[in-house]
Write a structure and sequence with these properties.
Shape: globular
CATH architecture: 4-Layer Sandwich
Distance between the termini: 49 Å
Radius of gyration: 19 Å
Order of helices and strands: EHEHEEEEEEEHEEHEEEEEEEEH
Oligomer: single chain
Number of domains: 1
CATH class: Alpha Beta
CATH superfamily: Carbon-nitrogen hydrolase
Largest sheet: 6 strands, mixed
Helix content: 10-25%
CATH topology: Nitrilase/N-carbamoyl-D-aminoacid amidohydrolase
Length: 310
């Protein structure tokens, strides 16, 4: 199929309420707003249907998981079809009893599921207890041909790994999406906050440069304690809900071009729809001038598949 060489991308930087139904309603409304502003390729933040529940290990929270296709894809597929957009949405997938994934689904303009990607790198850090909930992805790193171009999706913790970005680009992706839920521990923000955000942005801009691709990183905003209201059942997060507990999600969503230049950047504390017009011809032009893919020494990289080279 012949595709336009330019696409308007929109990233939905949003806060998430305890009520999962309200979050889905908000996401659908924001996608419609972005589409009506001319966006053809739209991405929602990681696990947008709930407050970030991985702040604790709680078996009751597995009730948030859903099949794909399922209720969220049914709702969002209708929005994609009605607004004629390609949409990337991050969901808590129930694959089978006891097998759950952190999954990004790509929906085509006709509402069909174009592809799914299961998060490969699963963190286990204070307030990010994802290994309790998610099985590591088993689909590998993928590029998906859509009517808005060939895209690749990785999820949050994946964004720190150059291997994932590289393999996705080598499969032909020209735009990398990173739906994300990352923020500050409030007690650490004053000392480490600026450095943490800058490291996050720098790592992803490096993916854009090293691979000659566009990078679109979309985060949530707001201070969350993992409170959840789902199907009428309230699951309140732990602790005293003071300003020094929970996670302050740092927003700062951004779009970078293949040269690493920031095309658009969101605030750290406001809900926004971030837009940029991507000239996909720039992928080839940049790679012609910075031929990193041409000059790779593929004969010398066997050690990359080992944990550590003793």
């Amino acid at each position: 199929m012949t595709q336009p060489t330019s696409q308007r991308v929109a990233l939905i930087q949003m806060s998430c309420a305890p009520d999962t139904a309200a979050n889905l309603d908000k996401a659908a409304a924001r996608v419609r707003e972005a589409a009506r502003a001319g966006a053809t390729l739209i991405c929602l933040p990681e696990l947008f249907r709930a407050q970030y529940f991985c702040q604790r290990e709680d078996h009751a929270l597995f009730d948030l998981a859903e099949p794909i296709p399922g209720p969220s894809t049914e709702r969002l597929s209708a929005v994609a079809r009605e607004e004629n957009v390609v949409l990337v949405a991050s969901l808590f997938e129930r694959r089978a009893p006891g097998v759950y994934h952190n999954t990004a689904v790509t929906l085509e303009r006709d509402g069909s599921i174009a592809d799914i990607y299961r998060k490969m790198h699963i963190p286990d850090d204070p307030l990010y207890y994802e290994k309790f909930y998610f099985t590591p992805g088993d689909l590998g790193f993928k590029a998906t041909q859509t009517s808005a171009g060939k895209i690749g999706t990785l999820v949050c913790w994946d964004q720190w790994y150059p291997e994932g970005a590289r393999l996705t680009a080598l499969r032909g992706a020209e735009v990398l999406f990173f739906p994300t839920a990352i923020g500050w521990h409030p007690s650490e923000k004053s000392e480490f906050g600026i450095a943490q955000y800058e490291a996050w942005q720098t790592a992803q801009r490096a993916h854009a440069i090293a691979n000659g691709v566009f990078v679109c990183a979309v985060n949530r905003v707001g201070h969350e304690h993992g409170d959840v209201l789902h199907n009428g059942v309230e699951l309140r997060g732990p602790g005293d809900h003071t300003p020094q507990s929970g996670i302050e999600f740092w927003g700062g969503s951004f779009i970078a071009d293949p040269f690493g230049r920031i095309l658009a950047k969101a605030s750290h504390d406001q809900e926004e729809i971030l837009y940029a017009d991507l000239d996909l011809k720039l992928v080839e032009v940049t790679r012609q001038h910075w031929p990193f893919l041409r000059d790779r020494r593929i004969d010398a990289y066997e050690g990359i598949t080992r944990r550590f080279l003793d």
